[in-house]
Write a structure and sequence with these properties.
The protein is 36% helix and 18% strand. It has 410 residues and is α/β, with parallel strands linked by helices. Among the domains are: 235 residues, 3-Layer(aba) Sandwich (Aspartate Aminotransferase, domain 2); 32 residues.
């Protein structure tokens, strides 16, 4: 998987600090290669990957079907722009809308761009309605519109004035959102599972409530499935478990297996709201990234694949609940499918992730007191068991560290 130690090994942090904008607090790990659910660093050390590029690498690393698809795509068109029709793009729109129960697709490069497209579509489809309802601890992206919809002050600090018109409601509260919905509301924007907000699944009854009351108020329901979609939660989209069909779905991350791709899926009048020239993306839906997305869908939409994700997710969930019972540091485990969070009694997510690194496992914080586990969807049962065993050891190691201030969220 890795050739002899590369000549650049050990140099990237210093070189990167000199030439990259300091927008990331990167870990001191130089990842050089990967295969399946493991990556190797520049020194040849192996890590079990429960981060998957922040829920992106749905098929893991160097998946044979994806590798073949990209090799074939390199032989043809890489890019021609959206001034012309390309078959991979059209067929991908057909497959995605069919799987989602939607009608039309708009392709872009990221989840934030998909959310931006949804916000603009809502404005066009509901002219004169100024408000969009969002929810506490939501995260919808870092572009200015998506950031304005993100109800977490730590992300918004320093970027005022934000885009106006967003009204924040408590997540999961039936009465509050009912009182907020009137003829001034263009849309409701919700994550069926909050990712950066701490891996918090929305109650299915509440999602059904949102669907009913938004429709009654004439507002559009936008579901942000950037992180929870493309099989991550055990269904193709997490909203499908609640038995609802939204007006718009924003998705990205796992869609193209590691290449940058996002999509907004729409139905009803939202599907007709934008005319030529009112929105666009130079690279969106290009033939090369569309080929990657087709390879992902070839696997994820195979019969029994999603049931396998649900089974593996159940195994992981049960094992995490057992850890919660045995470790005082853990309040609870929560999540759905292969989208899981370990909620800590103290704000020690960074320390736990660092302890996992020391043991040879990658994971992702979701706030200062939740560690997110989002392995590739192709992970084997044995790798799940291995990951849980490493987490068990890391929790024990962190529990022995000097006491830190409490402050866990519910």
């Amino acid at each position: 998987m890795l050739s002899p130690r590369p000549e650049w090994a050990g140099t990237l942090a210093e070189r990167g600090a000199a030439c990259l904008m300091p927008t990331y607090a990167r870990y001191p790990i130089e990842i050089a290669s990967g295969r399946g659910c493991r990556v190797l660093d520049s020194a040849g050390r192996s890590y079990l990957d429960f981060a998957a590029g922040i829920a992106v690498s749905a098929l893991g690393h160097a998946h044979p079907h994806l590798v073949r698809a990209l090799g074939a795509a390199c032989e043809g068109l890489l890019h021609v722009s959206n001034l012309y029709w390309t078959e991979p793009m059209v067929r991908l729109a057909e497959r995605l809308t069919r799987a989602a129960g939607m009608e039309r697709a708009f392709f872009c490069n990221s989840g934030a761009e998909a959310v931006e497209a949804a916000l603009k579509t809502a404005r066009r489809a509901r002219p004169g309605r100024e408000k969009i309802v969002v929810f506490e601890r939501s995260f919808h992206g870092r572009t200015l519109g998506a950031l304005s919809a993100t109800a977490q002050p730590q992300y918004q600090e320093g970027f005022a004035p934000l885009v106006p018109g967003f009204e924040t409601m408590p997540f999961g509260d039936f009465d509050a959102v009912r009182s907020a919905l009137d003829e001034s509301v263009a849309a409701v924007l919700v994550e069926p599972i909050q990712g950066e907000g701490g891996v918090r699944p929305a109650p299915p009854d509440w999602l059904r409530h949102l669907r009913a009351i938004s429709g009654s108020a004439g507002a559009l329901l936008i579901v942000d499935e950037v992180q929870s979609g493309i099989g991550r939660a055990g269904s193709f989209f997490a909203y499908q478990d609640a038995g609802i069909v939204p007006d718009m779905v924003a998705t990205a991350k796992g869609l193209a297996g590691g290449l940058p791709m996002g999509a907004l899926l729409t139905r009803g009048d939202a599907a007709q709201a934008l005319a030529p020239g009112q929105h666009g993306s130079t690279f969106g839906g290009g033939p090369f990234v569309a080929a990657a997305a087709h390879a992902v869908l070839d696997v994820v939409l195979e019969p029994e694949f999603l049931s396998g994700v649900r089974a593996k997710g159940a195994r992981l969930g049960e094992a995490l609940e057992d850890l919660a019972r045995r470790h005082e540091l853990v309040i609870r485990a929560r999540g759905q499918g292969l989208f899981r969070g370990v909620v800590l009694r103290k704000p020690r997510a960074k320390e736990l992730v660092a302890a996992l690194h020391d043991l040879g496992m990658l994971a992702v914080p979701a706030g200062n007191d939740v560690v997110r586990l989002v392995p590739p969807l192709v992970i084997a049962q044995e790798e799940i068991d291995e990951g849980v065993a490493l987490l068990d050891r890391a929790l024990a190691a962190v529990a022995e560290l000097p006491s830190a201030a409490a402050g866990a969220r519910p």
